[in-house]
From TrEMBL:
Natural source organism: Strombidinopsis acuminata
Protein name according to UniProt: DUF5600 domain-containing protein
Pfam families cross-referenced by the UniProt entry: DUF5600
InterPro entries: DUF5600, P-loop_NTPase, TRAFAC_Dynamin-like_GTPase
Residue ranges constituting the DUF5600 domain according to the UniProt record: 118-184
Highest taxon of the lineage: Eukaryota
SUPFAM superfamilies registered for this protein in UniProt: P-loop containing nucleoside triphosphate hydrolases (SSF52540)
């Protein structure tokens, strides 16, 4: 199950987490899914559904509780975008925030419609990121090899020293300085 969730998270362009304004409790299974999709924070959007069923004042409380619940599970630098709306075919119950909810629904639809265009740019960015990682690994391996090959005696000891956590940190730092590579 976990592997399937990770596969879908990796291969999807957008991940929508749907919440009902009447039931914000997170089940253990839903918490597990939210933990599994960590690392794909840029893809995650939150939808607060049936928001017309609560008064505007209660909606603020519901929104705050939703953010508290989601923030307790997803540890991301930024809070995911939350869309507030009523995505069912029933008549609106509270029309006090009708303009807001219609604007939010339009924003969600716009977000979904523009996914194919954004997908091309995301793929280009991912290829560039992977190329930087390959370049960093290449420089690191070349550095490690040069340190071991340059020794006439004590190659085994030098290999062990370089492969230790301290040796690798030293090698990373040296390669970063030599080739102007970022820490990320």
């Amino acid at each position: 199950y976990n592997g399937v969730v990770r596969w879908f998270a990796q291969h999807s362009d957008r991940i929508l987490l749907l919440f009902d304004a009447y039931k914000l409790d997170l089940s253990d299974e839903f918490k597990d899914v939210m933990k599994l999709i960590q690392g794909y924070d840029k893809k995650v959007r939150v939808v607060l559904n049936k928001a017309d069923g609560v008064s505007p004042q209660d909606l603020m409380r519901v929104y705050g509780a939703l953010m508290w619940n989601v923030g307790g599970v997803i540890s991301a630098a930024e809070v995911p975008r939350v869309y507030i709306g009523s995505f069912w075919d029933r008549p609106w119950m509270h029309v006090g925030m009708l303009d807001l909810m219609e604007a939010e629904e339009n924003d969600l639809i716009e977000d979904l419609v523009t996914l194919p265009q954004n997908n091309v740019m995301n793929k280009i960015n991912e290829i560039a990121r992977r190329a930087r990682v390959v370049e960093a690994h290449t420089h690191l391996l070349a550095y490690l090899r040069s340190k071991v090959v340059s020794k006439w005696y004590g190659k085994k000891e030098e290999q062990e020293r370089l492969c230790s956590p301290e040796g690798l940190l030293e090698a990373y730092a040296q390669v970063q300085r030599q080739h102007d590579i970022s820490r990320g």
